[in-house]
Specification:
Strand content: 15-25%
Distance between the termini: 9 Å
Helix content: 40-55%
């Protein structure tokens, strides 16, 4: 009998390696306004809290920069047009999701990426897998607020105790804690094992196969 019935996944750094497309969009927007490009390492340190915060961290002066809103709009426009140029699922992820779906687990994605992009990427990379995809929008506060997790659980008529939340960052750990769900942290994404442990991770997984075996054993 499945005790943990629902599985909610983060997207960037958990299911998809999106960092190079995020960096390209950030640098295209910054370059358009005469600002220097950011490195891959810098971009990795900026992600996790949505594209507004990504642009805020990447733009000199952040939100106080008079060009902030224009740079953010340019980022979104570029990213919408190019978000599948370099993005790929992590090895073993499509197989993991297909297996879990076939074993009867409801699957969802909860992301701080803007909602249209989350739905587009889920449809592009996982077209044959039933996934409830939820991104940042005016009606749902972004992580680490628990709103999106609660929204998903309401759709399934489930309680937090029925759920695993799977992510790759400190934001995901905080989100799971705020929602009262158990968090499983993966080490193939945008944060190191050391970063995750320092943020309070209690369960670390280095491969999708390890993650699968743990889930189905609970």
């Amino acid at each position: 009998m499945i005790r943990k019935k629902a599985l909610i996944f983060d997207l960037d750094g958990t299911l998809l390696d999106t960092i190079d497309d995020l960096r390209a969009a950030l640098n295209a927007a910054l370059g358009k306004h005469g600002y220097p490009a950011r490195t891959r390492g810098e971009t990795l340190s900026f992600v996790g809290n949505g594209v507004g915060v990504l642009v805020e961290r990447g733009l000199p002066g952040g939100c106080d920069n008079p060009a902030y809103r224009e740079v953010l709009a340019d980022f979104k426009a570029y990213y919408t047009a190019h978000m599948t140029d370099l993005t790929r699922p992590y090895p073993g992820i499509p197989e993991l999701l297909r297996s879990l779906a076939g074993e009867g687990y409801p699957l969802a994605i909860v992301s701080n990426k803007f909602d249209a992009a989350v739905k587009a990427l889920a449809g592009r990379y996982f077209p044959d897998i039933p996934l409830l995809a939820v991104g940042e929008s005016a009606r749902i506060a972004r992580k680490p607020a628990p709103d999106a997790v609660f929204y998903v659980l309401r759709q399934w008529n489930m309680m937090p105790k029925d759920c695993f939340y799977i992510g790759d960052s400190e934001v995901d750990i905080a989100t799971a804690k705020a929602a009262g769900v158990d968090c499983l942290s993966v080490t193939w994404g945008f944060r190191t094992s050391e970063d995750l442990r320092a943020s309070g991770a209690s369960h670390l997984f280095s491969t999708p196969e390890e993650l699968h075996d743990y889930i189905v054993s609970r």
